[in-house]
């Protein structure tokens, strides 16, 4: 995963007062300096210590510390937190990040070492911050007309978890990462309903799974089935049936008058339809289905004949023609277009979920799955030189 981020350093002379008294039972907004030059030791690539200030609330009379920009009550600076998160995102384990910081400490002579538990906490906190920022970004009333959705699996404590990812299919921006109970249609309807309503979605882009079709219909969304999923599967089926028709054809059913040679021609027609999506493709598929609609279904214990399999293939494509070709004519109110694939969601899964997961033996907590995946997706969507310190500032 390629990232272009920056880490803001500590600024010892810059102090930012809170807008409101930090004590929960006080709403004071005016403060005065109570004490200056309060020394605070920190772990940071550049500074060993900084000077904090103590301010007094003019309403409740209590005092509180104000730290320089990039410093909090924690022993580590925001810059060191961000650096530890970056090392993890780039592929190091929690323990390896700790060892790398120890090596840098010996090299630079600065207090940089963090235990692997502290690194873990930094990463989880950054992931939680990314989830809050993503949710706030979506809730700003953004109109996202096309949702891309897909499922994947990861292991957590030895169990396989279903992870659902939703993206803006036009821009590729990740919108949500969630853990689902299962892959059923009911679960997907409940999962997608909230975000579809929140962003005013009109179209769902997905793979060919029946559960996604049910979800689209239940939510009143048009659907684009990914051509990159369907086309190779159809071509494989066509090749298999063509080989059988040429080399070892099944006996012709008594209800039909189609020869094996005609079946090969019809399969070539199906191949041309699925590759080219012609304007009359739906009519051609309807005609093909009518030709094979009398092919009998197999009896219990029998294998489906090439005639019946061709019938099912033509029927499946005919039934889903509108879902396969929505991209040809759909256009959003602001000129948005879709390419007919679910590649945007596939990329989000590859970069945000799978790439970091490949080097792991699995997760120990479900919340870690959400935090790490959202963190990676958030960083991947940010512009060049995004300040990583924003995710770790207290």
Topology:
Elements: E1 5-6, E2 11-15, E3 31-41, E4 49-57, E5 63-66, E6 68-69, H1 78-89, H2 94-108, H3 116-138, E7 146-156, E8 159-168, E9 174-180, H4 185-199, E10 203-206, H5 210-218, E11 222-225, H6 227-247, H7 260-276, H8 281-292, H9 306-319, H10 321-324, H11 343-357, H12 366-381, E12 386-387
Parallel strand pairs: 1-12, 7-10, 10-11
Antiparallel strand pairs: 2-6, 3-4, 4-5, 7-8, 8-9
Description:
The strands form four sheets. A five-stranded mixed sheet has the order 9-8-7-10-11, with helices on both faces. Strands 3-4-5 form a three-stranded antiparallel sheet, with no helix packed on it. A two-stranded parallel sheet has the order 1-12. It starts with a strand and ends in a 7-residue tail after the last strand. It has twelve helices and twelve strands. The radius of gyration is 29 Å and the shape is elongated. Helix content is 44%, strand content 18%. It has 394 residues and is an alpha/beta fold. Strand 4 and strand 5 form a beta hairpin. The protein has three domains: 121 residues, no CATH class; 133 residues, Ribonuclease H-like superfamily/Ribonuclease H (Nucleotidyltransferase, domain 5, 2-Layer Sandwich); 98 residues. The mean pLDDT is 94. The longest helix is centred in the N-terminal third of the chain and has 23 residues.
């Amino acid at each position: 995963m390629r990232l272009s981020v920056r880490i803001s350093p500590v600024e010892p002379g810059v102090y930012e007062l809170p807008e409101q008294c930090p004590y929960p039972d006080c709403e004071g907004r005016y403060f005065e300096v109570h004490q200056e030059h309060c020394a605070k030791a920190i772990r940071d690539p550049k500074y060993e210590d900084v000077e904090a200030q103590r301010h007094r609330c003019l309403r409740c009379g209590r005092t509180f510390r104000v730290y320089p920009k990039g410093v909090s009550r924690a022993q580590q600076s925001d810059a060191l937190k961000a650096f530890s998160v970056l090392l993890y995102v780039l592929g190091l384990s929690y323990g390896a990040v700790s060892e790398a910081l120890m090596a840098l400490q010996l090299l630079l002579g600065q207090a940089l070492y963090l235990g692997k538990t502290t690194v873990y906490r930094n990463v989880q906190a950054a992931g939680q911050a990314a989830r809050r920022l993503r949710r706030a970004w979506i809730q700003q009333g953004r109109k996202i007309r096309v949702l891309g959705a897909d499922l994947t699996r990861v292991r957590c404590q030895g169990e396989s978890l279903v992870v659902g990812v939703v993206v803006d299919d036009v821009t590729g921006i990740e919108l949500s990462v969630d853990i689902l109970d299962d892959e059923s249609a009911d679960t997907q309807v409940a999962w997608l309903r909230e975000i579809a309503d929140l962003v005013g979605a009109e179209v769902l882009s997905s793979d060919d799974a029946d559960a996604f079709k049910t979800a689209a219909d239940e939510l009143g969304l048009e659907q684009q089935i990914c051509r990159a999923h369907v086309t190779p599967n159809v071509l494989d089926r066509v090749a298999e049936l063509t080989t059988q028709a040429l080399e070892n054809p099944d006996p012709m059913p008594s209800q039909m008058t189609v020869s094996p040679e005609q079946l090969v021609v019809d399969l070539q027609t199906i191949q041309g339809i699925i590759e080219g999506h012609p304007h009359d493709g739906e009519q051609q598929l309807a005609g093909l289905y009518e030709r094979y609609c009398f092919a009998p279904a197999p009896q219990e214990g029998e294998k489906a004949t090439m005639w019946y399999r061709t019938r099912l293939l033509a029927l499946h494509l005919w039934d889903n023609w509108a879902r396969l070709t929505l991209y040809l004519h759909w256009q959003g109110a602001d000129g948005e277009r879709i390419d007919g694939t679910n590649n945007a969601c596939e990329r989000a899964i590859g970069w945000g979920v799978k790439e970091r997961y490949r080097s792991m033996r699995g997760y120990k907590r479900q919340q870690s799955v959400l935090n790490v995946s959202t963190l990676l997706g958030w960083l991947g969507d940010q512009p060049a030189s995004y300040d990583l310190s924003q995710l770790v500032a207290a």
